[in-house]
Amino acid sequence: MVNSLRAAAGRLRRDGFLKTVPLIARRLRSQVMAVVEDRRRGVSTSREVTDHQLGFGDSRYHAYVATDYDTFKAAMGLVDIRPMQDVFVDFGSGKGRAVLLAAEMPFRRVIGVEYSMQLHADASRNLAALRHRRCGEVELVQADATRWPVPPDATVLFFFNPFDGEVLARVCENIRASLAESPRKITIVYVRADKFFEHEIAWTEWLTRIHEIPCSDGKVAIYENKAAG
Ligand SMILES: C[S@@+](CC[C@H](N)C(=O)[O-])C[C@H]1O[C@@H](n2cnc3c(N)ncnc32)[C@H](O)[C@@H]1O
Questions:
Q1: Do 79 and 37 have their domain in common?
Q2: Ligand 1 pocket by C-beta < 6 Å: which residues?
Q3: Closest atom of ligand 1 relative to the 61 alpha carbon
């Protein structure tokens, strides 16, 4: 909260009042929603965890910030979920906010993959506390996503800007290897696609962007693989 307000104050000086006020209003709404929605579910997903606290020592592995509740809802509203058929994966699942929200949707299986032991433990506690679930199974995996083979039934792949560079490229190779082994339609939901994904991956020939919507400070883009048919 303090960090966000400090950033907003810097922006006020740089961009002026008219541009900054709506941004501050959106941030405040997001912070209030986070408290209310976490409390309603009996979980704790909102506090950010910095690079320094995580101790990854590699700037391509990004720190923990939870997906904004409104953003997740708007993004997933654009996905046609096939009830009890689709399998959701969050790459870099942190304390599990996206996993917990996906568990409230009719997925057959929901999987979260998180590198940090500490965040994985937090997500496991949150999952145990979750009061309502609509999906089939939920699985939390502690692993580096680059070393995690993408399951042949994974169909809705969610990312909130978890990594970049070679790390992102390797995970995308894993997705392509999974598609080569088990051809199917996949949907990639990418929050803050404008940060790295658009520049590093999305222009490649295997993906088509099917939706794009604004979100706090950037955009969400949704892609399908071209051979999807
Ligand atoms: C911006 S947070 C997103 C959290 C969560 N997906 C959400 O939407 O609430 C990025 C997460 O990616 C994790 N991460 C970074 N590099 C990773 C890697 N190579 N493998 C798995 N997780 C990673 C970080 O620890 C962090 O929890």
A1: no
A2: 54, 61-62, 64-67, 90, 92-94, 97-98, 113-116, 119, 144-146, 160-163, 167
A3: 16
**In a shared domain, residues 73 and 156:** yes
Most ligand 1 atoms within 8 A of CB, residue of 30, 73, 116 to mutate: 116
Q: Tell me the pLDDT of the chain (229 aa) as tens digits.
A: 566 667 777 877 888 877 778 878 888 888 999 999 999 999 999 999 999 999 999 999 999 999 999 999 999 999 999 999 999 999 999 999 999 999 999 999 999 999 999 999 999 999 999 988 999 999 999 999 999 999 999 999 999 999 999 999 999 999 999 999 999 999 999 999 999 988 888 677 899 999 999 987 789 999 999 875 5
Q: What is the DSSP letter of 95?
A: T
Range of the domain at 33: 2-41
Number of structural domains the chain divides into: 2
Q: Are 77 and 104 in contact (CB under 8 A)?
A: no
pTM of the full structure = 0.93
Q: What CATH number does the domain containing 157 carry? A: 3.40.50.150
Quickly list H helices, 131-226: 165-181, 197-200
Whether 92 and 63 have beta carbons less than 8 Å apart is answered as no
